[in-house]
């Protein structure tokens, strides 16, 4: 079965039942990769004739910008919700942070960014320069005096 793979595909969570988002289907290797890897990597491998996750480490050199985003007041909010709602406070905190991060990720994606790392209430985001891509190669392959294999 051939499913169109785009940035929205990369954002949909895989459900424990083997469904991804609202549409049922079996979990493919690319779907698993999409839940853990930046969209740029997933899209590159999904475009192959026989889509599969990378079989070896890769390195990609590119120009871009990196942003580090941390939710201000997260600790105070979690303490306040625990105080006000007891054990239910953690459920409310989970709902709040999921809603907030979903909107934030959608905004980043809308503006061409890619979340490359989550750490609790923080995100690391990259915006790649689309015009001057220098290429992808396997780790250890040399290329253009960049000291490949670093």
What does it look like?
The structure is a single chain. The chain is an alpha+beta fold. The chain contains five helices and five strands. The strands form two sheets. It has a three-stranded antiparallel beta sheet, with helices on one face. The chain has a two-stranded antiparallel sheet with strand order 1-5. Helix 4 (74-85) runs antiparallel to helix 5. It is elongated, with a radius of gyration of 19 Å. The model is unreliable at 13-25 and 137-150 (pLDDT under 50).
Principal-axis shape: elongated
The share of residues in extended strands comes to: 15-25%
What structural category arises from helix and sheet content?
Answer: alpha+beta
> How much helix, percentage-wise, in residues?
25-40%
* Count of runs of 4 or more consecutive helical residues: 5
Pick out the low-confidence regions: 13-25, 137-150
Succession of helices and strands: HHHEEHHEEE
Secondary structure: number of strands: 5
Distance between the termini: 39 Å
| Sheet with the most strands: spatial strand order | 2-4-3
Average pLDDT level: 75
How would a crystallographer describe the biggest sheet? 3 strands, antiparallel
Top keywords for this entry?
alpha+beta; three-stranded antiparallel beta sheet; 5 strands; elongated; two-stranded antiparallel sheet
Topology:
Blueprint: H1 7-11, H2 29-36, H3 39-46, E1 58-60, E2 64-70, H4 74-85, H5 88-110, E3 113-119, E4 122-128, E5 136-138
Antiparallel strand pairs: 1-5, 2-4, 3-4
Helix pairs in contact: 4-5
């Amino acid at each position: 079965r051939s499913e169109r793979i785009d940035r929205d595909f990369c954002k949909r969570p895989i459900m424990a039942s083997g469904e991804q988002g609202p549409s049922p289907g079996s979990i493919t290797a690319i779907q698993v990769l999409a839940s853990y890897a930046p969209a740029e990597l997933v899209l590159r491998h999904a475009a192959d004739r026989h889509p599969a996750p990378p079989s070896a480490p890769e390195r990609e050199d590119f120009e871009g910008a990196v942003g580090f985003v941390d939710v201000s007041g997260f600790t105070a909010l979690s303490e306040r919700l625990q105080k006000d709602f007891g054990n239910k406070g953690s459920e409310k905190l989970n709902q709040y942070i999921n809603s907030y991060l979903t909107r934030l990720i959608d905004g980043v994606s809308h503006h061409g960014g890619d979340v490359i790392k989550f750490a609790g209430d923080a995100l690391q985001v990259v915006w790649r320069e689309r015009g001057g891509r220098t290429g992808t190669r396997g780790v250890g392959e040399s290329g253009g005096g960049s000291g490949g294999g670093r």
